Amino acid sequence: MRTPTWKRKHLDTVIATAVKLILFSAGPVRLVLEEDLRNELPFIMSRISRAPVINPVRQLSSGISSPETLPAGEFERTNVHSPEKRFRFYYFDIRCRGELARFILGAAGVDYEDIRVNLASWPALKDDTPFKTLPVLDFNGVQLGQSMAIARYLATEFGLRGRTPYEQALADSVAEAADDVLASHLEFMFEERSSKKENMKRVFMESTLPDFLLYLDQFQKVYSEEYGYIVGSKLTYADLAVYSLLEQLMSATIIDMNYFSYYKYPTELRKRIMSNGKLMRYINNRPRTDF
Amino acid sequence: MRTPTWKRKHLDTVIATAVKLILFSAGPVRLVLEEDLRNELPFIMSRISRAPVINPVRQLSSGISSPETLPAGEFERTNVHSPEKRFRFYYFDIRCRGELARFILGAAGVDYEDIRVNLASWPALKDDTPFKTLPVLDFNGVQLGQSMAIARYLATEFGLRGRTPYEQALADSVAEAADDVLASHLEFMFEERSSKKENMKRVFMESTLPDFLLYLDQFQKVYSEEYGYIVGSKLTYADLAVYSLLEQLMSATIIDMNYFSYYKYPTELRKRIMSNGKLMRYINNRPRTDF
């Protein structure tokens, strides 16, 4: 008899705990189940090889000594860090929701593993990711999910977050608004009904995008102390979020270079980015993708 | 002749600059326009009374001494802060994307102005908000947009953000995932085609919501040091984001109290929230809204 959906969900907690016991114990593990779960044992055992695993930080430095006890899930490979690369970044082989993190790592000149997950291997990987989504950042034994949480963490780590809580809040608001604009773009790109798609594109071109860029021009005049940066006097991840957005819109031929000339900040920003050697090294060497 | 859309957008920059000159100068202001903009003067003048204004921080303490020079936009009232209330929070009279900020202010016991914008006055206010969206937090003369940027700023300000960059990243990922789940809920709530709505609701109930709660149960076991909190040993805004989400799902009769018993963390969290006197004072006294 097939275990009902809700019960399977509930059981996953038991399963994950069992996997963790196996992972983090030195010797063999005895699984003791509460009475009402005993007849679920075959199901539990069948799931153990692919249950989600979150590794606590304290496991990193010690490493995992017996790989044969690891569950079969592909994601567990991330426990075995090469010592010189603290970060592994998992995303599909596209820019979209992953490029901001790659830009931050690039601008910081960090040597990381840029793992491009192909669509064929995604279903097997999915259950082992936090929130069942990509991107995922693997660092210090932690798998961090949510694209903006990842970007913000990396920005904090590498001095691209803003100098004060106040600057950070402003940078956050710009980065999140850029993410919203990107979401609107993706929405009409993937819309299948052509009349609806056209309408969504029109709203995007006539209102969503120009409103955003216009606001940034005004914003920069007030909150920026240095030509080309949106907040304060140095690069923040908000600048990278805007640049990544505009670059993607150009790749998708939604806008061209002339469009920039209507707005002051993106024009200045582009010059700043072009003169950032580390970031340009990433941009010039990254895999070619359509979007 | 009507000014074309793109030019109007471009002109807004000129207009906003003019408004700022008027606002922040002691005496009368002469508007000097570049040649190609001169024939736009009537349009510019007509817009000045409702142009977006971003007030730099340095203007707060001095205040605005000549209110008759202020543009007519409703939002400009926020320049005149009562000294004991540093924060004004603008959102519609619903919970949705605004309740997390209100929860944080409530849990911190901060006396703020909880301004509920009615739908009739929104169109007039819209152009004066950052990113043309609500919620907006007005503090220190800054108008901060984007719900999650606001929540995070308040959480930082009131010690609800996590103790280390590492805890903060984890809290961010949970808060943002909760915001994604809320977005999925709003999406099917506002879907008009009934067959599509049913399908979206089914995916939400069978996968989106249980996956999220199951992950949190596992997450808590690893990252929490104190029963009922998702990260570390005290309340963070991630806990409030989850609670606010579940509360809204209950109000919308998507789930009921029994649902909690499948998952450990929400059950524990609820007890923690119920024992937080300041937050319960807000919850018990807030305006009644359907969602």
From TrEMBL, chains A, B:
**Top-level taxon of the source organism:** Eukaryota
- State the InterPro entries in the record: Glutathione-S-Trfase_C-like, Glutathione-S-Trfase_C_sf, Glutathione_S-Trfase, Glutathione_S-Trfase_N, GST_C, GST_superfamily, Thioredoxin-like_sf
Q: Which PANTHER family match?
A: GLUTATHIONE S-TRANSFERASE
Question: Organism, per UniProt?
Answer: Ramazzottius varieornatus
Residue ranges annotated for the GST N-terminal domain, each copy included: 85-162
Q: Which GO terms describe its molecular function?
A: glutathione transferase activity
Its BP terms in the Gene Ontology are: glutathione metabolic process
Task: Quote the Pfam families the UniProt record gives.
Answer: GST_C_3, GST_N
Its name, as the record gives it, is Glutathione transferase
Gene name, please?
Answer: RvY_13928-1
Instruction: Pinpoint the GST C-terminal domain residues.
Output: 164-291
